[in-house]
Design a protein that fits this description.
Elements (H helix, E strand, L loop, with lengths): L2 H24 L6 E3 L1 H15 L4 E7 L6 E3 L1 H18 L5 E7 L2
Parallel strand pairs: 2-4
Antiparallel strand pairs: 1-3
Helix pairs in contact: 2-3
């Protein structure tokens, strides 16, 4: 993926996140669609690799043929980021390894 595509994807994700916040504040109905998890996992991995310090290894282990799930893709992305960021914070400033396993 090139830089322009990354910027567009991040912009769409930000738009979706703002929409979720507004939906939550109104207690509205959340949107669900059939989500292919693989692109979402890969995008979250790239984002994490760019934000978590280089002395922290990020290991992603996932099946290439993950089933689609009925979910909000932005929420799935946010959950992955939150779990991995929390794991990084638990390393307490030192290097280490954060592992993400999906479907195994």
């Amino acid at each position: 993926m090139d830089l322009q595509e990354d910027i567009l994807t991040a912009s769409r994700r930000a738009t979706d996140l703002v929409s979720q916040i507004l939906t939550f504040s109104r207690q509205g109905e959340m949107r669900r669609e059939q989500v292919d998890l693989l692109p979402t996992i890969r995008e979250a991995y790239r984002f994490l690799r760019a934000t978590i310090p280089a002395d922290v290894e990020i290991y992603a282990d996932y099946l290439e043929a993950l089933p689609k799930v009925a979910a909000d893709p932005t929420q799935i992305h946010q959950v992955l980021l939150n779990l991995c960021t929390n794991s990084w914070h638990a390393l307490d400033g030192g290097g280490g390894r954060v592992e993400l396993h999906v479907g195994r």
